[in-house]
C-alpha cells in the first residue's frame, strides 16, 4: 500500500470528531516532563543507597521499586529520556539519557533472556537513532547476537523463559514479538541477513500457533524442540489458558505491525488488522478505550484496568494507520485512547514518585503490580504522543 496515499486519506478525517477528544500533545509532554523530573530525583536518591539498582519500575504498596539492569524492564526509563530529548531537543534530556542508558550496557551479553529488545533496543536503539553514536550501534549488534543464541531452528522460535521447567519445556510468549525489532535493525546495520531470517521465522511460527480464529492470542506456547510440535497452549499472566490477556493482545498488535513495516509481508499486515479488530470491536472494553487487564475475567467490571496495554495499543495503531485501509478508524481509536490516558490516567503532579501514568496491571494472577504505575506504560505513552504529533503534522500542516 502506498503510504502517501493512505496518509492523504487520513488527512480527510472528519472534523466531526469531538474536540474534547483531541490530545494536547504539548501539554501532555510538559506534564510528563515535570513528573519525570520528580522521578529522576527519586532514582538518584535510591541509587545512593543501592548503586546496583539502575531503573525505576513501579510503585507497589506505596513503595518506590527500583530494579537491577538484568530486569526485563530496565531499559524503559532511559528510553523515555531519549523520547524527551527527541521532543524537546533540550541538551538536559540528552545528557540524562546518555547517563542512564550506560547503566544497561552490560546486558548486551546476556544470553539468559529474550527481553533484550526491551532492555537494549529501547534505550540504545533510540539513542543511536538520535545521535548516530557508533558505540550504541556496537551494543545493538552484540545484543542481537546474544538474542540469536536463544533461537531453535526445529521449533522455529526464540525461547522466552528458562524458568519453571516443571511447567513447560520450551516456552514462547506473545511478548517475544516485541524483541524482533532488534534483529531486523541489526541486519540493516550489519548487512548480515541471519538476524532478519530468525525474526521472520519466529514471526511466521508465532502467527501459525499463537492465535485463535478471532485473532486473540494465547500467552504461552510450549514447543517440542525434537519435532517442532506444540506441546501445550497456556497462560502465565492471563486469567485462564483460553482467555485474552489484555497486554498480550497489545504486544501482538504492535509486533505484527512492526513486522509488516520491516518486511512489507502482507500476511503480517492482515494479522495486525485482525488483532486490531479484536481489540477495537470488544464490547467488554469501557467507552474510554482502556481495557480491563484480561478480556475474559468473569469479575469485570470489578477488576483492574491496564493502562500499559492501552498505551502500547495506541502507539501501534498510529503506526498501523499509515499502512492499513482502516487507517482513519485506527487513528480515531488511538486518539481516543491517548485522550483518556492523558486526562484520566495520569498521576497527580508530583505523585506516584514521578511516574506518569497510573492504573496499569503487571501480573494479576501473582497479585503483583495490580493497579499501579509502571515504567513500560510511561514509555509507550510517550511513544504514542510522538507518533500522534508526527502524524498530525503530516495531515494538518
TrEMBL record:
GO terms for molecular function: hydrolase activity. InterPro entries: 6-hairpin_glycosidase_sf, 6hp_glycosidase-like_sf, Glyco_hydro_88, UG_Glycosaminoglycan_Hydrolase. Pfam families: Glyco_hydro_88. Residues 1-20 form the signal peptide. Keywords: Hydrolase, Signal. Belongs to the glycosyl hydrolase 88 family. This is Glycoside hydrolase family 88 protein. It comes from Pedobacter jeongneungensis.
Amino acid at each position: 500500500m502506498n503510504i502517501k496515499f493512505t496518509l492523504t486519506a487520513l488527512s480527510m478525517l472528519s472534523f466531526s470528531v469531538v474536540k474534547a477528544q483531541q490530545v494536547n500533545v504539548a501539554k501532555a509532554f510538559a506534564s510528563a516532563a515535570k513528573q519525570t523530573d520528580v522521578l529522576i530525583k527519586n532514582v538518584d536518591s535510591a541509587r545512593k543507597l543501592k548503586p546496583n539498582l539502575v531503573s525505576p519500575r513501579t510503585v507497589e504498596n506505596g513503595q518506590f521499586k527500583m530494579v537491577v539492569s538484568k530486569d526485563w524492564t530496565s531499559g524503559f526509563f532511559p528510553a523515555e529520556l531519549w523520547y524527551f530529548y527527541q521532543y524537546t531537543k533540550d541538551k538536559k534530556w540528552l545528557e540524562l539519557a546518555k547517563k542512564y542508558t550506560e547503566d544497561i550496557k552490560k546486558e548486551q551479553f546476556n544470553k539468559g533472556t529474550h527481553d533484550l529488545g526491551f532492555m537494549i533496543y529501547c534505550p540504545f536503539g533510540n539513542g543511536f537513532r538520535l545521535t548516530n553514536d557508533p558505540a550504541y550501534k556496537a551494543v545493538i549488534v552484540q545484543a542481537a547476537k546474544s538474542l540469536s543464541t536463544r533461537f531453535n531452528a526445529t521449533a522455529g522460535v526464540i525461547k522466552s523463559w528458562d524458568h519453571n521447567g516443571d511447567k513447560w519445556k520450551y516456552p514462547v510468549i506473545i511478548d517475544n514479538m516485541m524483541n524482533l525489532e532488534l534483529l531486523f535493525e541489526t541486519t540493516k546495520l550489519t548487512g548480515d541477513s541471519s538476524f532478519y531470517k530468525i525474526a521472520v521465522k519466529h514471526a511466521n511460527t508465532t502467527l501459525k500457533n499463537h492465535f485463535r480464529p478471532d485473532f486473540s492470542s494465547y500467552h504461552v506456547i510450549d514447543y517440542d524442540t525434537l519435532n517442532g510440535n506444540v506441546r501445550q497452549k497456556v497462560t502465565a499472566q492471563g486469567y485462564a489458558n483460553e482467555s485474552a490477556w489484555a497486554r498480550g493482545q497489545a504486544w501482538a498488535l504492535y509486533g505484527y505491525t512492526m513486522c509488516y513495516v520491516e518486511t512489507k509481508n502482507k500476511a503480517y499486515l492482515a494479522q495486525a488488522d485482525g488483532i486490531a479488530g479484536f481489540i477495537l470491536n470488544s464490547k467488554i472494553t469501557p467507552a474510554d478505550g482502556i481495557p480491563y487487564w484480561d478480556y475474559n475475567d468473569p469479575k469485570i467490571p470489578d477488576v483492574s484496568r491496564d493502562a500499559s496495554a492501552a498505551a502500547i495499543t495506541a502507539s501501534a495503531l498510529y503506526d498501523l494507520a499509515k499502512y492499513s485501509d482502516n487507517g482513519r478508524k485506527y487513528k480515531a481509536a488511538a486518539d481516543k485512547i491517548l485522550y483518556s490516558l492523558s486526562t484520566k490516567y495520569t498521576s497527580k503532579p508530583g505523585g506516584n514518585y514521578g511516574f506518569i501514568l497510573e492504573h496499569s496491571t503487571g501480573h494479576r494472577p501473582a497479585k503483583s503490580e495490580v493497579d499501579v504505575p509502571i515504567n513500560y506504560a510511561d514509555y509507550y505513552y510517550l511513544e504514542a504522543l510522538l507518533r500522534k504529533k508526527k502524524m498530525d503534522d503530516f495531515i494538518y500542516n
